[in-house]
Amino acid sequence: MELKDNVAIVTGAGQGIGLEICKKLAQAGAKVILNDLDAELAHNAAKAVGDAGGTCIPVAGDSSQPEIIQKLIDTAVSEFGRLDIAIANAGITLFGDFLTYPAESFFRVMQVNLGGTFFLAQAAAKQMKLQGGGGSLLFMSSVTGHQAHKNLAAYSMTKAALEMLAKNLVIEISEFGINVNTIAPGATATERTLEDLDYENVWSRITPMGRPARVADIADTALFLVSEKARHITGQSIVVDGGWTSVSPSPY
Fold it and tell me: Into how many domains does the chain fold?
């Protein structure tokens, strides 16, 4: 129970990687505020964490909106008295050819992936500074922030930017005992990605370790980075991709 009595916020956690992170945090003793845009998903996910013995409160809403971000902070403080961990997991992928990519798609990707992360980090850091004792911020990047990927120009921009945000925050919040890091997952088997029936086969073939990541691979990395074992690690990005970025074959 290495995170006993810690309080954590995780956005975009109704399923997939985010939900697995919530489960791991709860198993480690943390009290979790679970956010998802979909209210039913958020409720069901929090119930699953609770049924497994964890403490988890759902807060539905668009985590790129300042009022929802503040609601997450307020819920953590009102329910549990503090905030120790904030994980900006929410993000969207809107594929599209660069030459015809619509403005509305571009700005929505920026709003969710960048705005949601930036302002959650800002609000969480302010609360951590106020209460004292430090804390941990964690952002969700992607291997597409390291390697070009067809039809993901806008998305890839945001993921590279999040890694730079983490580096920059080192000089902004280290004095308050807050560390900040980023995970860059590669291909990961989730409910969404496995809607493509060929996904597992394709990525197993082109990933050196012979399979795409499981959500537990990403969640285990997250758990380490927000734990006391990683307190002296900050401004870093850890790629979890089974070696794909070392060779980078295209799935197309």
Answer: 1
Per-residue pLDDT tens over the stretch 16-52? 999 999 999 999 999 999 999 999 999 999 999 999 9
Distance CA 190, CA 156 (A): 19
Q: Is residue 195 part of a domain?
A: no
**Domain span at residue 82?**
7-187+216-235
Instruction: From the candidates 23, 24, 31, 159, give the one annotated as an active-site residue.
Output: 159
Active site residue 4: no
- The residue annotated as part of the active site, out of 63, 155, 156, 237, is 155
Decide if 159 is catalytic: yes
Farthest-apart Cα atoms in the chain, separation: 51
The domain that holds 87 is classified in CATH as 3.40.50.720
Q: How confident is the model at residue 159 (pLDDT cuts 50, 70, 90)?
A: very high
Residue 206 domain-assigned (yes or no): no
